[in-house]
Amino acid sequence: MFGWWCRDVCCVGHWIADFWKEALILSSLHHPNVVSFYGIVRDGPGGSLATVTEFMVNGSLKQFLQKKDRTIDRRKRRIIAMDASFGMEYLHGKNIVHFDLKCENLLVNMRDPHRPVCKIGDLGLSKVKQHTLVSGGVRGTLPWMAPELLSGKTNMIDVYSFGIVMWELLTGDEPYADMHCASIIGRSYIET
Questions:
Q1: In the 8-state DSSP scheme, what is residue 60?
Q2: Catalytic residue among 8, 69, 83, 100
Q3: How high is the mean pLDDT in each 10-residue block of the chain (192 residues)?
Q4: Which residues are within 8 A (CB) of 150 and not within 5 positions of it... i.e. 6 or more apart?
Q5: What residues does each domain of the chain span?
Q6: CA gap 177, 59 in Å, rounded
Q7: Is 100 a catalytic residue?
Q8: CATH fold of 58-191
Q9: Distance between CA 34 and CA 49 in Å, rounded?
Q10: What does pTM read for this prediction?
């Protein structure tokens, strides 16, 4: 199947397969720190497909952290970190590696002033592990990608990304924000 992107013909079959893969993964997950999946809808006849998931009032953790009028005290930051770690532990227990764990993919509900809720979302890049090795090529968003991803021989890739998330949660800044992509890749290569 082919479609158009930026006025160029491209293969959309891969995107459709990835969409259904994410839907299948989401439908099998049930945990208080992983976004709930409700189903799939089509946007009109012949329209695009979309997953219907749980609504998280405050959007992504990144969006929430960027709002200057919002502060998160130390206790709430710990709760958010614990929620994210529980969600990651659950995914790993199901042999699922997220591959793109970052503040943009952590969704929050801060309505309860005493108990924020954080859930892992956007499992589009995730992959079910085959035995103990992670397979499927290089996936993720550069600054959050573990150096081990270059070798593909560890299932702890999400743990590195989680550390980057903790950095952002505690400092409010994105690490490596001032580095060029090539420098980040060079750093990752040297560390492996």
A1: B
A2: 100
A3: 46 74 86 94 81 92 83 91 96 88 94 95 65 45 58 70 90 70 54 52
A4: 138, 188, 189, 192
A5: 58-191
A6: 22
A7: yes
A8: Transferase(Phosphotransferase); domain 1 (1.10.510)
A9: 21
A10: 0.74
